[in-house]
Amino acid sequence: MDLAALDAFQRDPYPHYARARREPGLVFSAELDAWLVTRYSDVREALSRPEDLSSAGALRPDATPVPRARAEMAKGVGGGGVVLSSDGEAHHRYRAPHTRGLSAARVASVQDFIGERTARIVDGLAAEDGADLVENLARRLPGEVIGRLLGLEAQDVPAVVRGGYRATELAFRPMEAEDQVAAAREIARLQHRMDDYVRSRHAEPRDDLITEFVSALAPAGARELTREQRGECVSSLQNLLLAGHLTTSALMASMLLHLLRHREQWEALCARPELIPDAVEECARFDSPIQGFRRRAAADTSLGGTRLPQGAVVFVSFGAANRAPARFARPDRLDVTRRPRGHLGFGHGVHACPGARLARAQLTTVLHELTRRLPGARLAPEARVRMLPTMIHRSPERLDVRW
């Protein structure tokens, strides 16, 4: 794999999407080692055909850890299936606790907490002349919220959040061997801490998401959970962190970046806060936090006019579909008055994001608080914005803002 080419693709995939859309059928991407699905109609179709296009391998790593890192990972408590890379009955089983745990009622139960924590964070920001909003807001608030929902002790939240980021770095970023080993150790420690919670909730259930997952994935009545059951619970909780926290953090950071870059859009929200819910949808469309996932042909099939033999891998790009001119007028323009119905920023079909409601609750709260309290916010003149090299959790590396 040409890592330099992959890095360039990941930091700015949109020119690649535009070129691919101009070609008939699907285009094979050497950078992603997959057929690139970029047209809105093709992406919707691919996401609506789980029986033909399997999710197995959806989270295939871009980097292979060195043996010492793999040995450290083996000391953890993972290895179970997860909702993002499963099909059929297994997918239904893994998704059920996500759906129940992130229900409208559950999100409503933390709305006051979201408001209180957002106000407290913005109080701290307002006391300074500026800050990096990635570190001090976009990563902090969603971490505290998911920690609250999971039922984590407050002192465990920072390590759990960091462990989630280290897991994605190890899988999707090239790193030096020693850093890989260090990341693997952190991930294994996180897994053991989550395993402690799993066993505790099995013994003494509570009204939290960890209990929801334990109840769904481990049969009631058993005095002790098996190693396999614990691994399934821990893996699913890690997956929830990936989908329920890191994705929200990424979208929050990129949303603030693009609104502040397009000053007239930010000022429109300051003047008309009723536009904020539409602005959240437009930002999810404009720069999707999850750019896409891989799918594998379960049998010989066709998509977008291209024949795909059994085993062929496609990269189904939500980000490309959301910039498709056939679906959205002036798709490369951010417009908070657009109301982008049908955008795929939160996915589509059986794998649509179960945490979308929770993400929207946080994003709208943040925009209401920032536009009201810090309307003069602007990108720091000296800031050099770089996007992380990843197709998941697309976000600026940092976001230096002054007010």
Automatic annotation (TrEMBL):
Molecular function per GO: heme binding; iron ion binding; monooxygenase activity; oxidoreductase activity, acting on paired donors, with incorporation or reduction of molecular oxygen
Gene3D superfamilies xref list: Cytochrome P450 (1.10.630.10)
Keyword tags: Heme, Iron, Metal-binding, Monooxygenase, Oxidoreductase
Pfam families reported in the protein's UniProt record: p450
Protein's UniProt keywords contain Metal-binding: yes
Coiled-coil parts of chain: none
This protein's name: Cytochrome P450
Organism annotation: Streptomonospora alba
Species classification: Bacteria, Bacillati, Actinomycetota, Actinomycetes, Streptosporangiales
